[in-house]
Amino acid sequence: MEVKIGIAPEKAIEGVGRPTDVALGPLRDQVAQAVTRGGGTVVPVQEAEGLVWLLPGGPEPLLEALDAHPGIRWVQLPWAGVEHFKEAFKRPQTFTCAKGSFAKQVSEHALMLALACLRDLVRHARTPSWRPIDPRSLGGLSVTILGGGGIATELVALLQPFGCRIRVLRRSPEPLPGADATLPIGELHAVLPDTDVLVVALALTPETRHIVGAPEFALLPPGAVLVNVARGPHVDTDALMAALDSGALTAAGLDVTDPEPLPADHPLWGYDQVLITSHCADSSDYVARKLCERVTENVRRFGAGEELEGLVDPDTGY
């Protein structure tokens, strides 16, 4: 059975970079090859039954494309987080995203941020003279991970040699292998008083926006650190700075911020117990390679009538 797949935009745009950036020239060529490896044929969008969407920005161009081409039955999005496309998910098409694809590198980044916070690396780096600062070890600490997807799965595996007590809070009741406990999100306040490292690694929805704010920081024990590798709005930035000022939070490692990009004059840059990386937990080459793997597998599955990987739940928006 021939599988006809369109790729948008249909004309390559010059540049290099990630699917979240504007660079679509080389990436589009790679995706076209991935479609072929999956047994598909790249066709003009008006002839397609499946569509790989690579255009950055909001959902409006995609909605227009679906209105113009009702023969499209499946849309593959290039991002793991697709909160801006929730309006599209009301459509009858099947949507898949890249959730889980980039988890390995992001989980490595989360571990690095946790270790850096515990060992006070920002303060060390900013001190222009010899100044011994006692480190803290990750070994044996209590780690709570908000989110039970691919990042959590990979991070739990990375934490095993450290002998941490690991609790995962997720929407699904299914236990996450390797975690000491898998609990519903509603148990967050119950576990925070015994949480040394709080890792945010869940999808952004209206329910999870500011899931970590002043009440949550107040419940953490002395010496606790925060790591966020999900989305900036999960954390109330004003409450975060207040917690750092009061000592309720010892340190924070942030790959994402709110606002994002974080303005150069934002006061959060001035905290020497905060390590900020610029939403770069995964590399461009890695993202492109893993996206293409997802495209190849889903084209194959689409042609075979099998369940697709990375299915988006229209009700939850991820």
Automatic annotation (TrEMBL):
Residues 112-281 form the D-isomer specific 2-hydroxyacid dehydrogenase NAD-binding domain. InterPro entries: D-isomer_DH_CS, D-isomer_DH_NAD-bd, NAD(P)-bd_dom_sf. Keywords: NAD, Oxidoreductase. The keyword NAD applies. It comes from the Bacteria. SUPFAM superfamilies: NAD(P)-binding Rossmann-fold domains. GO terms for molecular function: NAD binding; oxidoreductase activity, acting on the CH-OH group of donors, NAD or NADP as acceptor. The keyword Aminoacyl-tRNA synthetase does not apply. This is Phosphoglycerate dehydrogenase-like enzyme. It comes from Actinocorallia herbida.
